[in-house]
Design a protein that fits this description.
The protein is 33% helix and 22% strand. The chain is of the alpha/beta class. A seven-stranded mixed β-sheet has the order 3-2-1-4-5-7-6, with helices on both faces. It is globular, with a radius of gyration of 16 Å. The chain starts with a helix and ends with a strand.
Amino acid sequence: MKNLLFSFIFLSVLLSSCASQKGKNKPYACGRVFTKKEIKESFATLAGLLELKPGDAFADVGSQNGAVPVMLSSLVDSLEVYVQDIDTACLSEQELGKVLAYYSKLTEKPLRENSSFQIAIGTYTQTNLPAGYFDVIYTNATYHVIEDKEAVMNDIFTKLKDDGHFFVRDEFVEEGEVKICPGEDCGVPFASEKELLSQMEKSGFKLVQKWDDFSGYPVYKFGK
């Protein structure tokens, strides 16, 4: 567990920000550019946590430009990847193409040939993912910014296979505590664990497992 926590130290720093990072010299417009070492040392841990297997249908909800599922596809072959977000400035066929090209070259793998990739542009109430399709759905640092949590969680429930799992990683506060997500592009309060579990139960989910602390952030695994 100690080694697992250590490997998530950089992951929480890189993936929990509400704001997009942009720069002229980057290979793609939004988000952090990762190294080959970071992919091997930390995203391998995430792939293990999610229990991803070749052939799985996998969706990353709130994925920004798809860098995370693309890097996971470099570690697990033959995934059916759906990259989902509502921000079309960061998520488009052009930007996903840049991400795939960059990490294919970095990992020396033809990622677009090894796995399939689809984009799903959602709304504030719908993911627009195909129903009953997914083995694994993941969301990181996204739950707190979802405005209509009931609608979105109800929607995600319908997207999983009967034996599929939904993983939530985010910061949560104590009941009655108020903490605002920092950054100009965020500014919304974090939910409490009680609020999360109550909403998930109402949406039909059952808590399967909880990892208490990955560098300060819990991960929840839900099933139907």
